[in-house]
Amino acid sequence: MERAEGWPGEPWPSSAHRAGADAGHPGELVLGGVGVHALAAEHGTPAYVVDEADFRARARAYREAFETAFARVGTGVDVYYAGKALLTVAVARWAREEGLRVDTASGGELAVALRAGVPGAEIGLHGNNKSDGEIGAALEHGVGRIIVDSLAEVDRVAALAAERGAVAPVMVRVTTGVHAGGHEYISTAHEDQKFGLSVNPGPDGGDAPAMAALLAVLARPSLRLLGIHSHIGSQILDGAGFEAAARAVLRLRADLAERTGTLVEEVDLGGGYGIAYLPGEEALDPRAVAEDVAAAVATVCEELGTELPRVSIEPGRAVVGPAGVTLYRVGTVKPVLVTGEDGATFTRLYVSVDGGMSDNIRPALYGARYHAEVVGRRSAEPGVLARVVGKHCESGDIVVHEVELPADVRAGDLLAVAATGAYGRSMASNYNLLTRPPVVAVRDGASRLLVRRETVEDLLALDLG
Ligand SMILES: *Cc1c(COP(=O)(O)O)cnc(C)c1O
Question: What are phi and psi of 266, to 5 degrees?
Answer without folding.
Answer: -125, 150
